[in-house]
Automatic annotation (TrEMBL), chain A:
One of its GO terms (molecular function) is peptide transmembrane transporter activity. Its main location: periplasm. The lineage of its organism: Bacteria, Pseudomonadati, Pseudomonadota, Alphaproteobacteria, Hyphomicrobiales. This is Peptide/nickel transport system substrate-binding protein. InterPro entries: SBP_5, SBP_5_dom. It is found in: Periplasm. Belongs to the bacterial solute-binding protein 5 family. Residues 13-199 form the Solute-binding protein family domain. It comes from Methylobacterium phyllostachyos. GO terms for biological process: peptide transport. PANTHER family: PERIPLASMIC BINDING COMPONENT OF ABC TRANSPORTER (PTHR30290). It holds the Pfam family SBP_bac_5.
Automatic annotation (TrEMBL), chain B:
It comes from the Bacteria. Residues 51-141 form the Solute-binding protein family domain. This is Extracellular solute-binding protein, family 5 Middle. InterPro entries: SBP_5_dom (IPR000914). The lineage of its organism: Bacteria, Pseudomonadati, Pseudomonadota, Alphaproteobacteria, Hyphomicrobiales. Pfam families: SBP_bac_5.
């Protein structure tokens, strides 16, 4: 294969083996090591291998917070974190025509019930950053004037009781990786007389669910709305759990046709729109977590991709 | 592949000392492998910032016209990379209705045109403008003639490249 990337693909099956491309035009990105993707060894076994230093595995991607927390003290391996372009957010189930979650004031009220820092600390061992909506402060499109929605349990209780949700059990569908996060959300809800029930995501959503937790990431070159916001709320969204939103679609069209100099301002407008309308249960930006062998200098990517051009063996 | 072509240090010298083994359980790890082994006009660095790659620069000449200057680079078989190779990649991706697995938001509109002005210069026209152009270019791979002739992105099971880029 002749592809001019930083690596040359050598074989692909149970293992993908990539060797450095000696003619690559940019010496600074020319790998110094062969990369082997082991597609057979399990994640748990891979983590154990890094911790033991047995040489079978050097880097394991996408650890859950619980897996990172459980990583043993070792002089052979470590947990490495990256403030990647990620979100963990709750998608409201607005599919039923009479759903209470179609009301932005009700969605906002549930947001007010959440102590995000508590959820992050209690549910994910602090591996993340609380953010206003979908974009981290300092990133392209982040609005310096935006803050996370406040934690105001009394206002939340009043609004939710008015909406007929007093004492209600909130059904939250989630990957098992975020079960502790759902439990922490439940602790927040318990302070206002509500509760949360975790339902493991098996692909077939129960009809009566209220919220689906989604982890998502932005791989784009400074174009987060197409990758993330659109995927949740756009006309062609795959994660939307409700009707189309013509206002969002109009903003997206505006972005697509914005001149380069105005693009970031429109991204900020989109970000403000989703927070103003409480389009999601906003939580936090999870760190990406890796188990890494001490013999390796690993360079993780904010895009969450396992691009490995800069990864080296130490020494 | 011979040792020179693959970067093999020779003499069976690949071993633990120069091999990094990874476990990436992501369902989209194929995309990472693609971005390790392919190249595009632009890329995103480890800090999440867009960077030039096979295009060394670009400029919007007006609200609908993007001009890119291509880098001087050579494929592993000695074929030069130039503006014509970019144009070939664009023509190939435009053959399909929905080539990208992540979705149609990565598609160029059907009325987008691409012209190799000279060996180094590409001019793309986006009627009505398209602020997502550089994001879309990040997903438009630019392999060699031999890749297109011998492999392409055709799924051997279906004979189609739809959703297979």
């Amino acid at each position: 294969m002749l592809t001019e990337g930083v690596s040359l693909i050598d074989s692909r099956s149970d293992r993908v083996v990539m060797e450095p491309n000696p003619t690559y035009w940019n010496p600074a990105r020319r790998p110094t090591v062969r990369i082997v993707y082991d597609n057979v060894i399990g994640k748990d076994a891979g983590i154990a291998s890094v911790a033991s230093g047995d040489g079978r595995v050097d880097v394991v991607f996408d650890l859950t917070p619980a897996e990172a927390k459980a990583f043993p003290q070792s002089d052979k391996g470590r947990i490495q974190t990256k403030k990647a372009k990620t979100i963990l957010t709750g998608v409201f189930n607005e599919n039923k025509p009479g759903s209470v979650w179609r009301d932005p004031a009700v969605r906002r009220a549930l947001n007010l019930a959440i102590d995000r820092q508590f959820v992050l600390d209690q549910g994910a061992y602090g591996y993340g950053t609380v953010i206003p909506a979908f974009i981290q402060p300092g990133r392209f499109g982040a609005d310096p004037g935006m803050s996370p929605l406040p934690h105001d349990p009394e206002a939340a209780r009043a609004h939710l009781e008015k909406a007929g949700l007093g004492g209600r059990e909130i059904v939250i569908v989630s990957s098992p990786a975020w079960k502790e996060v759902v439990e922490a959300i439940g602790q927040c809800l318990s302070t206002i007389g509500l509760s949360a029930r975790f339902v493991s995501d098996r692909g077939d959503l129960p009809e009566d669910f209220d919220i689906k937790l989604e982890w998502y990431f932005d791989w784009t070159p400074q174009y987060p709305v197409a990758c993330m916001h659109r995927e949740f709320f756009g006309r062609d969204a795959t994660l939307r759990q409700g009707p189309e939103d013509p206002e969002f679609d109009a903003l997206y069209e505006k972005l697509l046709h914005a001149p380069e100099a105005q693009t970031e301002a429109v991204v900020r407008e989109v970000e403000r729109y989703i927070q103003d309308r409480s389009k999601a249960l906003f939580l936090y930006a999870p760190f990406t977590l890796f188990a890494v062998s001490e013999r390796v200098a690993f360079t993780p990517y904010d895009t969450c991709m396992s691009e490995l051009a800069e990864t080296r063996i130490k020494g | 592949m011979d040792a020179q072509a693959t970067g093999d240090p020779g003499g069976g010298a690949w071993g633990l000392h120069n091999t990094v083994t990874v476990v990436d359980p992501s369902p989209v790890n194929w995309l990472s492998i693609t971005w390790n082994t392919m190249e595009e006009a632009n890329r995103v660095d480890h800090d999440g910032i867009g960077q030039p790659s096979l295009a060394e620069s670009w400029e919007w000449l007006d609200s609908e016209t993007l001009e890119l200057k291509m880098r001087d680079a050579v494929y592993q078989d000695g074929e030069p990379f130039n503006a014509a190779m970019f144009k070939l990649g664009f023509d190939k991706v435009q053959e399909w209705t929905n080539p990208h697995p992540p979705g149609a938001f990565l598609n160029f509109a059907r009325d987008v045109t691409c012209e190799a002005v000279d060996d180094r210069t590409i001019r793309m026209r986006f009627p009505g403008g398209d602020s997502a152009a550089l994001m879309k270019l990040r997903g438009m791979h630019l392999p060699s003639t031999r890749f297109w002739n011998e492999w392409g992105f055709i799924d051997p099971k279906t004979g189609s490249a739809e959703g297979h880029w």
